[in-house]
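Structure in, sequence out. Go:
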C-alpha cells in the first residue's frame, strides 16, 4: 500500500432498536495503520448531532483498532473534541457534551 491509499468500509452496527449502516473512510497514517479520515470523523459528528459539516473544526480525537485486514490495522475515532462557531463540544459518538475548555476566547 502507498501513503495515498484510501479505503472505505461499511460497518453494520446492530442496536436493539434498529440496525444502522455507517460508512467510514480511511487513509494510510504515518505509523502504517489505516486511520479514519478527518472528513469521515466530521461527517459522523454532523450526521449524529445536526451540526453543519462545514463548520466543524476537529481539535482532538482518540482512535481505537476496529479490525485488521492482511496485516494492516484499521483505526476508528472513538472520541472527538471539536468546535462549531467557537463553541467547544465533546463526543464519544453516543453522547454529546459541551466542552467549555475548547471554547474560543472572545476578544
Amino acid at each position: 500500500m502507498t501513503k495515498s491509499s484510501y479505503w472505505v468500509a461499511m460497518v453494520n452496527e446492530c442496536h436493539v432498536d434498529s440496525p444502522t449502516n455507517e460508512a467510514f473512510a480511511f487513509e494510510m497514517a504515518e505509523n502504517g495503520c489505516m486511520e479514519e479520515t478527518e472528513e469521515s470523523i466530521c461527517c459522523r459528528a454532523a450526521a449524529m448531532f445536526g451540526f453543519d459539516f462545514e463548520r466543524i473544526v476537529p481539535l482532538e480525537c482518540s482512535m481505537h483498532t476496529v479490525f485488521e485486514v492482511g496485516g494492516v490495522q484499521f483505526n476508528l475515532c472513538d472520541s472527538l473534541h471539536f468546535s462549531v462557531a467557537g463553541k467547544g463540544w465533546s463526543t464519544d459518538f453516543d453522547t454529546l457534551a459541551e466542552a467549555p475548555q475548547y471554547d474560543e476566547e472572545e476578544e
